[in-house]
Amino acid sequence: MKSSVAVLPPFLVLDQLLQSWLMEDIGRGDRTTQSLLSQNSTIRQARWVAKAPGIIAGLPIAARVFQLLNHQVRFVAVKSEGARCEAGDVVAEIQGSLDALLMGERVALNLAMRLSGIATLTNIYVEKIADLPAMFVDTRKTTPGLRILEKYASAVGGAINHRMGLDDAVMIKDNHIAAVGGIGEAITSIRSQIPYPLTIEVETESLEQVQEALKYQADIIMLDNMPLTMMTEAVQLIREQDSRVKIEASGNVSLETIRAVAETGVDYISSSAPITQSRWLDLSMKMI
């Protein structure tokens, strides 16, 4: 399988998010746990168990949730990030104060289940084209507030992260083209203003637009919602005229179509499906 590197965001960035989600869940206090337990809660052990098969993602983040509640909590990942699990597998073992385990349980599990679900579906897409040169790429269609983690999970599943935000690269889309009157006008205006080393990608829907993107030396040409026959012709056209240009296919990519798209010879295939259509991977915490 083609390699992808999933870089865990630093806790300097994540802690503020995790703390806000803990505060949302705990509110003015955990009425149940705090009513049952003294402030000096006993030390207990728990296990996380998978209830369905999938790809694990988010365990270091889950560990941090518990440690923000009590820095002495010991969270041991039995499965590594990106590892496959089966129903009934122990995913992690935890030891710490009972109040911290119970107060952090839901936030930690929710994050790990969401991220593991993304990694699981992403991996299915990636495996469909694992023997072909094309790389699978995610998009900016993410949950507000969760983008940095959802894209991390996508990379754990084997995808390549597309731009994280609008400042990462220039992507000239149909509305930009309509606003200024054409691809040439858009590229010319933008190229005079952007800093090095930002690249320019152009979304195209026809062979005429592909020719214009080539004429004005776009770095990446996206073939958006093109029929396979037109996409194949566009790839050949780009390869013949400028071999340095990278080619991305996008639009209506599914598990049924991704392999045929990859066989046209594109460099990248982008889809929001693993993030927008994935189901959570069911995990549960059981006290020992």
From TrEMBL:
This is nicotinate-nucleotide diphosphorylase (carboxylating). The keyword Glycosyltransferase applies. Its EC number is 2.4.2.19. Residues 30-116 form the Quinolinate phosphoribosyl transferase N-terminal domain. It catalyses: nicotinate beta-D-ribonucleotide + CO2 + diphosphate = quinolinate + 5-phospho-alpha-D-ribose 1-diphosphate + 2 H(+). The keyword Transferase applies. Residues 118-286 form the Quinolinate phosphoribosyl transferase C-terminal domain. Involved in the catabolism of quinolinic acid (QA). Belongs to the NadC/ModD family. NCBIfam families: nadC. GO terms for molecular function: nicotinate-nucleotide diphosphorylase (carboxylating) activity. Pathway: Cofactor biosynthesis; NAD(+) biosynthesis; nicotinate D-ribonucleotide from quinolinate: step 1/1. It comes from the Bacteria. Keywords: Glycosyltransferase, Pyridine nucleotide biosynthesis, Transferase. It holds the Pfam family QRPTase_C.
